[in-house]
Design a protein that fits this description.
six-stranded parallel β-sheet
């Protein structure tokens, strides 16, 4: 979080400041390692990976990279609209709607995320096939569900999640 979006992003000392920059630049087979600290929500992921080479966003220390939905006017803190994306180990809170929304994106994995105190959902998916949602904690969603797999999503796997107080 102490980087600059004008940096190359190639090393920790040349890291980007925002997840929005990482989402715009990361491509097939790339892994974005996310340092501990606070990040603004409103991140839109539209760069797809391919089978065997997903675009991965992984917290270096699960739960210590914190995405704040209240720091944006965006509806969702993280919006995935690309195939073959992995989101791993983020702590996401106070989104205006969903902490993580997977929208018309196939082969997406959401793993080891903590989604708390969001307005509507922790994790919400729509029209997305072959999802893997595992090892997440989704709690204190104000109006609806911790995890909601909706609208014609085929072959989802939802396992080993903890959903409570939604």
């Amino acid at each position: 979080p102490t980087g600059a979006d004008t940096n190359s992003g190639a090393t920790l000392s040349l890291s980007w400041r925002t997840l929005t920059k990482a989402a715009a630049v990361a491509g097939i087979g790339d892994t974005v390692l996310i340092a501990d600290g606070d990040y603004d929500g409103g991140v839109v992921m539209r760069q797809p990976g391919i089978a065997g080479l997903p675009v991965t966003f992984r917290a270096i220390n699960p739960g210590a990279a914190k995405v704040h939905g209240e720091n944006t006017t965006a509806t969702d803190a993280i919006l995935v609209q690309a195939n073959y994306v992995v989101i791993d180990g983020l702590y996401i809170s106070k989104a205006n709607r969903a902490a993580i929304r997977v929208d018309q994106a196939n082969h997406v994995t959401v793993r080891r995320c903590i989604c708390v105190d969001n307005v509507t959902w922790g994790i919400f998916t729509d029209y997305s096939d072959d999802l893997l949602i595992e090892l997440n904690e989704c709690a204190f969603s104000h109006t609806q569900h911790g995890i909601y797999v909706s609208n014609s999503g085929d072959r989802p796997i939802v396992r080993f999640n903890l959903c409570h107080d939604n």
